[in-house]
């Protein structure tokens, strides 16, 4: 497994993740296809400029265009000030093989090694057993339940937090 930056050619993978009802069941439902090409271009620019870590999960480095999902760390403002947040998605054909967990751990190891992003927060849906399992097993600490607005919808999530420099398992 390898992580690589999102590139402008990743539109198809974005559509299969973000416009799919099953993939988006815990994230407020599928997003419209229109706008995905622009979103990928913006994300690729952000990744290339190192403003956010927007990574595609590549199961086999020999075929870097074949992706299994994404894992991302970015910084954004909240009512309590700026925070770093991590999020992830794994496509159905690749789920249940430990790839999500390895990808999340790999990106957090990079954050630790480069001393970047400080404290990292995660907000998986309360109903998403696999994502909460990932948080628990890589060393996140459960804080509380939290309502989070994503793409205009209020989601019921669990708030997890870790300092990759000291907490990563
Ligand atoms: C949630 C998701 C990222 C999990 O990725 P994955 O690669 O299938 O997960 P892994 O195989 O790495 O498993 C992670 C943990 O969850 C557990 N798990 C996996 N699938 C599970 C399921 N359906 N129910 C309960 N636990 C599950 C695994 O056993 C593992 O825990 P362990 O380390 O204690 O054994 C993936 O299913 C997905 O992208 N779903 C749709 C989109 C989504 O929900 N994104 C996240 C929003 S917060």
Rounded mean pLDDT score? 96
- Counting DSSP E segments of at least 2 residues, the number of strands comes to 7
Total helix count?
5
Question: How is the main sheet built?
Answer: 7 strands, mixed
General shape:
globular
In the CATH hierarchy, what is the superfamily? Gcn5-related N-acetyltransferase (GNAT)
Q: Please give the alpha-carbon distance between the first and last residues.
A: 18 Å
Q: What molecules are bound to this protein?
A: coenzyme A
CATH topology: Aminopeptidase
Radius of gyration: 15 Å
Describe this structure in words.
This protein has 169 residues and is an alpha+beta fold. It has one domain (2-167): Aminopeptidase (3-Layer(aba) Sandwich), CATH 3.40.630.30. The protein contains 5 helices and 7 strands, in the order βααβββαβαββα. The chain has helices at residues 11-18, 36-48, 99-113, 129-138, 164-167, and strands at residues 2-5, 53-58, 69-78, 81-90, 120-122, 141-150, 153-162. Strands 1-2-3-4-5-7-6 form a 7-stranded mixed β-sheet, sandwiched between helices. Helix 3 (99-113) packs parallel to helix 4. The mean pLDDT is 96. The structure holds coenzyme A. Residues 23, 26-27, 69, 88-90, 95-101, 124-125, 128-131, 133-134, 137 line the site of coenzyme A.
